[in-house]
Amino acid sequence: MRDIRAIAAKKDEDIDFSDIPPVLDWSGAEIGKFYRPAKKPVTMRLDSDVIAWLKSDGRGYQTRANQLLRHAMAHLRKAKTVVRRKKRQKG
């Protein structure tokens, strides 16, 4: 516990990372492995072909639907940020 406090008290620039090789290959990384936002049950009305498509890969269709919606949300947020930046640059 004392060691953890001592490390936590150090500034980033005072920590020696020379014995740790840099990570260059991130192909095995998992997105969201430790990020677990709270889930909320909802009822949605979806087209039957959409549900069939989500279920076609087997179990986990709700997780896949959530991942697709999260991806769309991130994409739209990023697009809105770009539009706002462009408007500020013009103005």
Write a structural description.
This protein is mainly alpha-helical. It has a domain at 42-91. 51% of the residues lie in helices and 0% in strands. It has three helices and no strands.
Characteristic terms for this protein:
single chain; mainly alpha; 51% helix; extended
pLDDT < 50 stretches: none
Number of strands: 0
Count of helical regions: 3
Which word captures the global form? extended
Could you tell me the strand content as a percent range?
Answer: under 5%
Structural class computed from helices and strand pairing: mainly alpha
* Main sheet makeup: none
The average pLDDT is 89
Helix content: 40-55%
User: Rg from C-alpha positions?
Assistant: 22 Å
Distance between the termini: 54 Å
The H-and-E topology, N to C, reads as HHH
Write the layout of secondary structure elements.
Elements: H1 2-9, H2 48-55, H3 61-90
Quick synopsis:
51% of the residues lie in helices and 0% in strands.
